[in-house]
Amino acid sequence: VLDDLELNLKYALNTHVHADHITGSGKLKLANKGCQSVLGKKGNEEAKADMYVDEGELIKVGNTIELEPRHTPGHTQGCYSFVCSVAGDDTKLVFTGDTILIRGCGRTDFQGGSSESLYNSVKTKLFTLPDNTKLFSAHDYKGHTMSTIGEEKVHNPRLTKSLDEFKDIMENLNLAYPKKIDVSLPANKLCGLQD
């Protein structure tokens, strides 16, 4: 597709160091000369990337697209969401990783996760975006590909609760430990497979 559109892939953004699968950043770099892996600075001190970003440091793509990193810890300490603005278009996009899933959120029981931090990240860094902001999460287990901030404010069964109710839900999920964590985590600290 990149070749068909005569585009070059400049960045492979990682919203966080994943535990359940190996990121494709390494393979994207191998297939696209000059492509850089990107991670947020905070909470990812043990991970290796070509470029680290933090709040206030815009990532520019061409002359029309800007990505604004927002540190949204909770699922992991190093979670970042990326708010995308396109010149001439008032509608924003946000890539939330596992911080917000469509009608859910990422687990908070490993990698320095914190239910309270996740809740506060959502309320102060994401739910402050305009309601029509299009939301794209890292996973969806029900076939949904997009939501909006406004929809999640009203319909997300976890994030519409009070902090205490949210913490109770998260502490009682009783999820199995990720099967591939022992392989995925070390590989993802290098931003994926490098060969």
TrEMBL record:
Q: Which Pfam families match?
A: Lactamase_B
Q: Which GO terms describe its biological process?
A: glutathione metabolic process; hydrogen sulfide metabolic process
Does the record's keyword annotation contain Kinase?
no
| UniProt keyword Ribonucleoprotein present | no
A molecular function annotated in GO for this UniProt entry is: metal ion binding
* Domain of life the protein comes from: Eukaryota
Report keywords, A-Z.
Metal-binding
Q: Which protein is depicted?
A: Metallo-beta-lactamase domain-containing protein
State the taxonomy lineage: Eukaryota, Sar, Alveolata, Dinophyceae, Prorocentrales
